[in-house]
What we know:
Low-confidence stretches of chain B: 1-12
Strand content of chain B: 5-15%
Shape of chain B: globular
Order of helices and strands of chain A: HHHHHHEEEEEEEHHHHH
Distance between the termini of chain A: 34 Å
Number of strands of chain A: 7
Distance between the termini of chain B: 39 Å
Structural class of chain A: alpha+beta
Shape of chain A: globular
Number of strands of chain B: 7
Number of helices of chain A: 11
Mean pLDDT of chain A: 94
Oligomer: heterodimer
Amino acid sequence: MTAMSGNTPLPPRWIGSDGEAIEVATALAADFAREAPLRDRERRLPFAEIERYTASGLGAITIPADHGGADVSFVTLAEVFAILSAADPALGQIPQNQFGVVALLRDIGTPDQKRRFFADVLAGRRIGNAGPEKGGASMLHMKTRLRQTPEGLRLSGRRFYSTGALFAHWIPTRALDDDGKPVQVWVRREDLGVEVIDDWTSFGQRTTASGSVAFTDVPVEPGNVIPVHAFADRPGLAGPVSQIIQAAIDLGIARGAFADTLAFVRERSRPWVDSGVERAVEDPTIRHSVGALATSIHAAEAVLREAAGVLDDVAAEPVTELSSARASLAVAEAKVLTTEAALEASEALFDLAGSAATRAGHNLDRHWRNARVHTLHDPVRWKLHLLGNHALTGALPRRHQWN
Amino acid sequence: MELRQTALDTRHLFEPPAAPPVAPAHVIASESEALEIARTLAGEFRAGASDRDRERRLPWSELDRFSRSGLWGITVPRTYGGAGVSNAVLAEVIATISAADGSLGQIPQNHFYALEVLRVGGSPEQQQAFFARTLAGERFGNALAEIGARDFQRRTRLLREAEGWFLEGDKFYCTGALYAHWIPTLAMAEEEGGLVSHLVFVPREAEGVEVVDDWDGFGQRTTGSGTVRFRRVRVEPDWVVPFGASFERATTIGPVAQIMHAAIDLGIGREAYADMLAFVKARARPWIDSGTERAVDDPLTIREVGEVHVRLRAAEALLRRAGRIVDQAQGKMTEDSVAEASIAVAEARIATTKAGLLAATKLFELSGTSSTLAEDNHDRHWRNVRTHTLHDPVRWKYQAVGRYHLTGKRPPRHGAL
């Protein structure tokens, strides 16, 4: 286990505008793209790349302006995620929880928490998470506890799906307090009793290291507890912000697969014997399929962009029940389309490129493996359900971290 | 997660040939016996399938068991002592084995293909000799495809020289060759009027035959579908079956080859569906918005299960329908009967391709993220069906089917239709 968090980070570049964020992401993506197939194949965790990401300043672009951040729009944030995920979606996904948590702090953090944690992010410290528990009967089942003891607060439990924890300085996690109420607890990666376990063995998003974190009587400072239960009824944007990032990652995967499809068909595929053409690019059936893919990806992209615009509008005013629902509905539409586009593009790649594209040297199956695994973050069938329910009855989506 | 290493370290090692059968294979007498044996074998093969895929462990002992069972002889015509099973039964046997292990289901595909070439175009002596060997338990592989050029010209040559006949060339995608006793090899010979194609049945242990275990596709990993090289391999005229003739006239070689490909994909799809049902029942958690206690009660999951089920059923029924139409075409081979068979099989392949891929991806959508962990190796179904469905492009099946129904134009005659 590499003790990353012990390092004092170098001050990252300060990104001052939306345009600069896109420029920095584009340059970084070109760098990350080169070894992405190798990292996936060898499951080589991207410690060095994550350091470059942090140094680029992209991790802090949503910090509010009055705390010294660029406070970029959600349109920009989504595009930054898509750009990086097209190059390497595991790298793209690793910072997702940092942005989710920053959004939560904006909504419900105390002034002191905002001051300290936003300053930490600007200084190059990373926030991971300790995700849902494995093996319980339901998603919300929780054994992780924050207990008041004579020595102070203590955190105990074991979480899974902890994307980013291995690379993080701070690990926020959900727990139940002594009254059985949900709280968010922040501990440091190097705190005594925190063990990050690299046991993520999924066939996709392999280098996200989304495995276990075990907490054993970890001392917790009272100021590092966010009483999320107190805000359960308050409309916010935590769910939509998390979802727009998920959708942007899937859009990135679709773009990456599509680009590889075009390159393979242009450079390597042979024309099918019945096509009567000299080059695969002249095959009318390939052209038709490429057209269908391009349309599906562009539609996903356009709806995602509009959904991000809705989030920007909603965030500009105090969030209400209705405006929060509007944001959830908008990102649900994007999520449906980006899911479809990522799965279609990564599977059709082979239909168009042919058997030769299945050879190990290309490692092109990583696109489908990544798309398949990442789109399972939450079930897209329930996004269609909430959209249908709203259209039919006007019902607002349930408010939780996945809507 | 050791399953996707880069190049195989055996790349430059030639594999030793299969041992000859130690005892004659069982001879299967009826269709029902064939189906029963297939189900029994599938039960045995299923247990180790995931480990074989994960470790890319070649299924030598399973294949010996498979050969001894007599299943590799079921299409030998009754007049030659075989069961002469219908194409629907052949397809069901292949689907049953493919469900248990997609690679094991595909390995005999070219064997049955070779038997059909012999049945259609072999001399009575060749039929007698090779059908007898088949019933005794010998296996045929294949060396048809070539890579390295962006066309479909075959560059492997059959050279007829004064001191004998020789084979020279390199092949790839040689499924089954690694495990075979004979390698039916497509080669071109200079004859009056130009190049003519032949299928040469080359003994696996012949001098100059090099089989390389270099198949590194991400799916169907243990099919051994890699390289075979022929370095001035001496062949006997008795081993040469004229092949150009097989496609100059309408024959059922293409439809028989294709119906087995469809069966492989159906089998893989069925297994993915079965694994999905088991996971959703025993291990999936209900989604928080569903308001249900168990994942099996999620109405949207129920809907998707119905969808996958009906696509697989449709594919299965199209496959059986195609089997009947291919039977008729074999009984009376005409331009029209063969065209009808090709189209029926192409329709089945469209359906099995879509249903197989659908089942393999919905497995995860309905089971959730915890079904993607390495211990289950559930992704092998998608890797297998994705790789195998690329055998020839399904988009050109739509062309053949659409054109036939629009204009009545018969499909092109080759092994992929």
